[in-house]
Write a structure and sequence with these properties.
360 residues, mainly beta, Methylamine Dehydrogenase, Chain H, Neuraminidase, 2 domains, 4-stranded antiparallel sheet
Length: 360
Amino acid sequence: MKQALVILAFVVLIILALGVGSAIFFGAGLGTGSGRDGGVFQTVDRGATWVQKVKVAGGGSLAGVEATHLAIFPKLPQTIYLGTLGHGLWRSTSSAEEWTPVVSGQALTNRTEITALALDPVNPALFYVGARLERGGELERTTDGGATFETVFIPARTNATIVGVVVDPSRPERIYIGTSDGGTLVSENRGTTWRALRWFGAQVGLLRLAPDGTIWIALKSSGLLRSKDRGNTWEDMSAKLGGAIRSFEFDPNRPGTIYAGTNQGLKRSTDSGNTWSYFNLIVPPQALPITAVALPMSDPQTIYAGGGNFVFKSNDGGLTWQSVRLPTSRRIVALIADPIHSGTIFLGLARGEGRLLFGS
């Protein structure tokens, strides 16, 4: 009996330690996940080990939240934003060591669903948040680092949300948004006024802006379109890629090179999307949708891809791959690379496939 009580006490201590959520190293026989296996994880050694980063300043943990977006300010890489599904927006100014909520009255609360997120590339106090509130979807803008927010766009349909927002780095006053009711719109004055570019017949899933100004739209069900003239005309590129697209990233070191995570695996184009080729990942193409991709600027040959609870990594431009299975029941929905610190990557996790928010 005494021995059993000692064992029970030891188990309780382990549970309490994991509840703090400060560090979990993958690959150490930790099981397949629990209710506290979510939030944000970080690697500083190019994916060899991953550490859970969920400590809330003043007490608490983000280990149970579902991530929707991660964004890092390029000129202040220690500043990271985390969007969540029903737990609002969070910010870390210490490279994810501690998190604080970004809360502002009724605009953003700790129960808001974050459906889109974009940071101004120049001004760290200016960013845009797609939020799903009780009254519906809205686009919020802050110019004071999140102390206050102003609603700058509301979809006409009450059940519609903002599923994508991007800031044009060549002209930051120009921003694009995609909506769940099929709209793509542009503002030339940081959201004060808007102009519709096109209404598609299906829900927009992903909205991306290439470094050369090309707008890319992936529809949630299936379909890919691009505009080379800022939305005046559109080309249907669906047949060239095929399948539903889950992630879409541009190579920061190679103009015209694009990576697409799809339901059939990871694909790459080296000619601005005209032709595509599969990567030979170390799982069958149809076995695992690729839901997130990270391309570190400081490591031109390195590719990270997330699918399910696996991280795939290549050090030679995709010729060979390694994989790490994370001890979590959740799925990777976001991957971002630190723009300055080589080998530092962050990922966000969410629960089952049905709850993934497109536009991450």
